[in-house]
Amino acid sequence: MGRPGGGRAVPQRAYVLHSHDWSETSLIVELFTRTQGRIVVAAKGAKRPTSNFRAVLLPFQPLLAQLGKAPADEHAEIFNLRGAEWAGGQPLLGAAAMFSGYYANELLLKLLARQDAHPALFDAYADTLAALGGGEDEGPALRAFELVLLRELGWLPELDSATLTAQPLAPDTRYTLTAEGGVIAQADGLPGSTWVALEAALAHQARAGSGVALRAVCAPVATALRGPLRTLLHYHLGPTPLRTRQVWQGVQRLVDTR
């Protein structure tokens, strides 16, 4: 947020999505904030040994960030990071869960427009990190996050009805999710009852702000959901592959050759 009336900037909840060197002593940091969405900040002096930024500008940890508009250009997209402190309460991710965390970060970086707030998506992201940090299965956590992300960006149709006909799904008929046709009947898809349960769980998350119910519905069908959701995501991502998936596939190949 800005500084109404020229007063002190109001700290806002944020997470670090990515950072890279700006100079010998400073960083450019991509933040995901609850009130302004994805923003870019200049963290001046962040690489100095005495900088307070060094200990807090870490991925997957909640921050309270204090921003100021770049002074050289009031219309610039890069903010000055005036201050940041750890907001606490988030367990560290284990090594395996970090791949899932970086995958979620890459989706946000590539799919969110800058300075477009999505408070519900921010809450879902924080909830997903808490689930991963708490040792929950990565498959259901990622499928739930993907569903919320697609819904927030307007790319997920209502899952309890056939998209082309708007007819309610038959519980025992099988359906799948496609990029151009939405929810359609398909013999090797998931039962209509599963899609209806997913839609109800999404609605519950929107009301309650907790992904527990959605992850529970995703758990028994996480593997089956991965294909349709990844296809829909890649339809909107375009031809550039996700780097986190490439890295993970490389790791898996190394493990398989041992």
Detail the topology: elements first, then pairings:
Layout: E1 12-21, E2 27-33, E3 37-43, E4 63-69, E5 78-86, H1 95-111, H2 119-133, H3 138-152, E6 174-178, E7 182-185, E8 190-191, H4 192-208, H5 212-218, H6 222-237, H7 243-256
Helix pairs in contact: 1-2, 1-3, 1-7, 2-3, 3-5, 3-6, 4-5
Describe the protein in words.
Mean pLDDT is 88; it is low at 1-7 and 249-258. Helix 2 runs antiparallel to helix 3. This protein has seven helices and eight strands. The chain has a five-stranded mixed barrel with strand order 1-2-3-5-4. It has a three-stranded antiparallel beta sheet with strand order 7-6-8. The chain has helices at 95-111, 119-133, 138-152, 192-208, 212-218, 222-237, 243-256, and strands at residues 12-21, 27-33, 37-43, 63-69, 78-86, 174-178, 182-185, 190-191. It is 39% helix and 20% strand. It has two domains: 13-86, Nucleic acid-binding proteins (OB fold (Dihydrolipoamide Acetyltransferase, E2P)); 95-245, Recombination protein O, C-terminal domain (de novo design (two linked rop proteins)). The chain is an alpha+beta fold and 258 residues long. The N and C termini lie far apart (51 Å).
